[in-house]
Every structure is written in structure tokens, then in C-alpha cells.
């Protein structure tokens, strides 16, 4: 069975206490942090930009992945690179030259991913699959943390897993939105490699470290029962 990773989204973190929040998920053993960047145009919300990302870079050595929910990713690759991200994900729904931006991101020796919204056909990303490191399947409509996981995403994840296996690629599948300890097992089983979790981690009553551990434990528990 594949090892499933958890990538906490700091969108639901306490920004007045960000250093402790990040340290807390580090203690739980995560390898990356998910940065939700929203511009108020592509999605009906505004989050944070390169200035905050630069501060996060100063407090952790974890891989930082920027999920750009913005209409003009091309103009913002450089600022996020400068801020110290390790990977950039942009959306397939944008009417831009996807291959050009992939080449630019990869040319800077960082990771690149493509995100797919709930209403977008997963087949749209097929021609680009071999050129990116990961595909991010949105399992909620982007814009806000704390929404309910859209069940139909499970079919999309398995469909994508089949494409990837069929083409013998190593592209990772990341799933973003509404992930928690109750559904993590079934999402991993459908074919996800990385689970993004915001509110289930930073809104956990025992704190973010416990939030991550609860999801990891639910996965281990499931794997144990499958043997
Ligand atoms: C939604 C974001 C997600 C979200 C995850 O626009 O891309 O990363 O914040 O948060 P939860 O886990 O609370 O759904
Ligand atoms: Zn996200």
C-alpha cells in the first residue's frame, strides 16, 4: 500500500500564532505545508500573498506548496519563488498557456502541479499529466476552508489513478478540501497520495499536532484492518 502524506493547509491556522502552529504540525511529522493563495477574483475570497509566505519560509524547513487560486498565476510565479516556495500549483480552468507556465515553474527547479475544480472533467489534465509532479483534485469548491467533502471526488480520484497507472507515470495525486479522520482512509484507498487538511488539523480540539495524528492514526488503523 502507498504511504499517504498529510499536508496541513494553514488557511485555518491562527495567524497570530503561526510559528507555534507550524511547529506543532512539524512535531506530528508532516513533510509539507499547503499555502492557499486567493485573489478575490478566481475565488470569492482573499487570503494571503508572498509577504506571509516569506515569513512562513523563515520559520520552517518543510516543503512549502503554494496552491494558487488566482486568475493570473503567470505574474505571481516570481514573487512566490522569491518568497521561497518549493512547489506551485495552478488551476486548469484558467484560459492561459498551461504548458508555458509549467515549463517556467519547472525551469526554476521547483515542483509544479495542476489543480482541478469539482465541476471540471478530469480528462482535461490528461495531456499535461507527464509534465507535472502532481495533480490536485479539489474536493470542495475552492475559496473557503471548513466545507464538506464532495463524495463524487472519489470517482475522480480513482479515474485519475487509473490514467496514471496506465501511462506508468509517477505523478502524485493530492486531494484538497473537507478531508478529516473519518474520510481519509477511503480517499487514500481511492488513490490519493497526499491529503490536504485545514480545519481538521488547525481546528482540532487537542491542537494541530493532535489533528494531524488523528488523521494518520485513522489511516494506520485502516491499513491494519486491510491486512
Ligand atoms: C479551499 C482550499 C483548501 C481548504 C482546505 O479553497 O484550497 O486547501 O482550505 O481546508 P479544509 O481542510 O478545512 O477543507
Ligand atoms: Zn488548497
Task: Please tally the helical runs, counting DSSP H or I stretches of 4 or more residues.
Answer: 8
Task: Report the CATH superfamily.
Answer: Aldolase class I
CATH class categorisation: Alpha Beta
Distance between the termini: 10 Å
- Named at the architecture level, the CATH assignment is Alpha-Beta Barrel
* Computed Rg: 16 Å
Q: Based on helices, strands and strand pairing, what is the structural class?
A: alpha/beta
Number of domains: 1
Helix and strand run? EHEHEHEHEEHEHEHH
Please summarize the sheet with the most strands.
8 strands, parallel
Strand content: 15-25%
Kindly report the average pLDDT value.
96
Q: Indicate the low-confidence ranges by residue numbers.
A: none
CATH topology name, in short, is TIM Barrel
Q: Strand order across the biggest sheet?
A: 1-8-7-6-5-4-3-2
Overview of the molecule:
The chain has a single domain, classed as TIM Barrel. It is globular and about 45 Å long. The protein has helices spanning 18-27, 50-59, 73-83, 98-107, 153-166, 184-190, 199-202, 208-226, and strands at 5-8, 32-38, 63-69, 87-91, 111-116, 134-138, 172-176, 194-197. Helix 1 (18-27) packs parallel to helix 8. By secondary structure, the chain is α/β, with parallel strands linked by helices. Helix 2 links the parallel strand 2 and strand 3. Strands 1-8-7-6-5-4-3-2 form an eight-stranded parallel sheet. The longest helix has 19 residues, at 208-226.
